[in-house]
Amino acid sequence: MRELRYTLLTDGSSDRALLPVLNWLLRDLNAQGAIQPQWADLGRLRIRPKSLSERILKCLELYPCDLLFVHRDAEGERLETRAGEIAHALKIAGNSQAIPPTVCVVPVRMQEAWLLFDEAAIRRAAGNPNGRQSLRLPKAAVCETLPDPKDVLHTALREACGLAGRRLRQFDPHQAALRLSDLIGNFAPLRSLPAFQRLEADLSHTLAKHF
Asked: Is the pLDDT of residue 75 over 80?
């Protein structure tokens, strides 16, 4: 294969921060060919598909691919529950058209839990790489147990930016979080997390079977 074109279908727009994670994992697993990622931006549609199976079909219509990633945040549900929901939606979608090889991406709680481990990258994303403020980041191994990792990440970014007053109020942690995933060069610390282990195992199996 000269290139591997994949599409990521996510819960929301901020979850496109998962693209660098998937790019890194594909390269680390020695995926064959140049990697061509796409994020399925269904939010721009005038009429948005409602069910997950409808979203999958629209995603494949607009962003055809060799490999599909379907993301759902666990948000308190068991990983197996979310994976089962995705599998059910894929089965329904498959009644309408052929579905490419698909891998579930289900961070426990939410994807921000996978961006909390690199303090230097957080400081760069916040625009203050030489800052010395204490960020009080959790250890990588416990990130998936946090009740609200998005709040923890956004708080860390606000603290890292070193701003105050009106300038701090104007600071956008959402945009900083999107920059953050591009600034992390090595996602290997995530291998201590069960949800990431599941993603890596499923992706490795899919690559071996189909590519």
From this structure: no
Concatenate the DSSP letters of all residues of 131-181 into one string.
------PPPGGGGGG-S-HHHHHHHHHHHHH---HHHHHH--HHHHHHHHH
In this predicted structure, the answer to whether residue 51 has a pLDDT above a threshold of 70 is yes
pLDDT for the residue numbered 109: 76
Assign domain 3-108+193-210 one CATH number from 2.60.40, 3.30.465, 1.25.10, 3.40.50. Answer: 3.40.50
Please return the burial class of 114, using the count of CB atoms within 10 Å of its CB with bins 0-12, 13-18 and 19+: buried
pLDDT of 1: 58
**Alpha-carbon span 156 to 151, nearest angstrom:** 8
